[in-house]
Amino acid sequence: MSVSTSAVNPVLRVAPAAPAEAAAYFRASLVFHADASDVAAALAADGDPGFVLLDSRSTESWDQGHIPGAVHLPTALVPAQAELLLDRSVPVVTYCWGPGCNGATRAALALAELGFQVKEMLGGFEYWAREGFAYETWEGGTRRAADPLTAPVDTADCGC
């Protein structure tokens, strides 16, 4: 498909990348990111998921709600405590509050600089809860109904 250079459409004002460039970009994105649904599926499967899930938020945030089985390590403490809590041979998936927070990105950077293999969970705790996955609070386990704007209501498979 050819795009006219005179197009005023804001989407096509800058032409899409060539297919090979686009494939390389999107492949690279998947190297660095996982989403809440894929993390939930991996954690729900029998056996070891092959990664450690790391919540990089504050203790108050952790107490308000966190993903079962996650390791709690606030971003600011990663440089000093990561080696004490994590096995360098096991990949780490970081998360924070949600799309408006870059704490998981900063934690992932700190871990990578320490030599850990790391990915960031897109959507963070917000999308974990919005998609209806179980979480723990200081009072115990809980779950919300899936938000129909983020997850299918009648099936666990979004088809993505």
Topology (SSEs and partners):
Layout: H1 19-32, E1 33-35, H2 36-44, E2 52-55, H3 59-64, E3 71-72, H4 78-85, E4 92-95, H5 103-113, E5 118-122, H6 124-130, E6 135-137, E7 140-142
Parallel strand pairs: 1-5, 2-3, 2-4, 4-5
Antiparallel strand pairs: 6-7
Name its key features.
160 residues, alpha/beta, five-stranded parallel β-sheet, two-stranded antiparallel ribbon, 6 helices, 15% strand, globular
Q: How would you describe this protein?
A:
It is a single chain. The chain is of the alpha/beta class and 160 residues long. 34% of the residues lie in helices and 15% in strands. The chain has 6 helices and 7 strands, in the order H-E-H-E-H-E-H-E-H-E-H-E-E. A 5-stranded parallel sheet has the order 1-5-4-2-3. Strands 6-7 form a two-stranded antiparallel ribbon. Strand 2, helix 3 and strand 3 form a beta-alpha-beta unit. The longest helix has 14 residues, at 19-32. The radius of gyration is 18 Å and the shape is globular. The model has no long low-confidence stretch (mean pLDDT 90).
In short, what is this structure?
The protein is an alpha/beta fold and about 160 residues long. It contains 6 helices and 7 strands.
Mean pLDDT: 90
Number of helices: 6
Low-pLDDT stretches: none
Instruction: Note the run of SSEs as H and E.
Output: HEHEHEHEHEHEE
The helix fraction, in percent, is 25-40%
The rounded Rg comes to 18 Å
Largest sheet: 5 strands, parallel
Q: What overall geometry do the principal axes of the alpha carbons give?
A: globular
DSSP strand count: 7
Spatial strand order of the main sheet = 1-5-4-2-3
Beta strand %: 15-25%
- Structural class assignment: alpha/beta
N-C termini distance: 25 Å
